[in-house]
Amino acid sequence: MKNTDYIIYMTTKHGRTWKWFKDKTGWKQIGPEGQTHHPTAEQFLNHLLPACANIKPITLKVVYKPHKERKSRTS
Question: How far is 43 from 26, CA to CA, in rounded Å?
Fold first, then answer.
């Protein structure tokens, strides 16, 4: 298993969802309106850790999807 095999969804209490995943070029964040950002690993952790610690009211969902299956859907 690799980081590229997972997609992380972060959903706010208002229902807005961000999708995070890693590919060859690094981490990607896709926002609720479809905008794409390329955060550093540190920026990704700055969003993920407060959600894991229940500091922010965010729901986390982690989906295992091997990179080969996901590639055709995100290209």
Answer: 12
- Domain extent listing, the chain: 3-70
Phi-psi region at 57: left, alpha or beta (left = phi > 0; alpha = psi -120 to 50) = beta
Q: Who's near 64: CB < 8 A, 6+ residues apart? A: 1, 5, 6
**Model confidence, pTM:** 0.79
DSSP count for the chain of H helices, then E strands: 2, 5
- DSSP per-residue string spanning 12-40: ETTS-EEEEEEETTEEEEE-TTS-EE---
Task: Give residue-wise pLDDT tens across range 7-63.
Answer: 999 999 899 999 999 988 899 999 999 999 999 999 999 988 988 888 888 899 999
